[in-house]
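Work Package 3 (structural annotation) set out to generate three-dimensional models for the target panel prioritized at the project kickoff. During this period the team completed the workflow that converts sequence records into discrete structure tokens, so that structures can be stored uniformly alongside our sequence database. As a representative example, we reproduce one entry of 112 residues exactly as it appears in the project archive.
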Amino acid sequence: MGGEIEKITVEIDEKFCTVNDDGRRNELKNAIRISLNKVANRIDKGYNIEVRAEPLEEPEEGKEASDADEIHISNIAIILDVSKNMQFMKLTGEPILQLPESEKKGKPEKPK
């Protein structure tokens, strides 16, 4: 699962990241990786994740869509298409992924 998360992280970075600063881009990749890891763990624990997007708007007559509009329309179409394949699963038993999540920074709690 960790390998697939890494593939998805790279794909998201290549497809959507417009940042030119290598340091900042690396920070964003790390944030994507951590977020995907947390989502995978929550799904493994039985959480139901729903992804929604507003339906596509009808284009105005006589008005051409800008490049940003075309990208937006394409992204919404992807979300709507993928959401058809998602379904709620009633999971039982222990989680199987057990992907490591970073601990919150700060002082650890004292044992009682």
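The first helix runs from residue 2 to 16.
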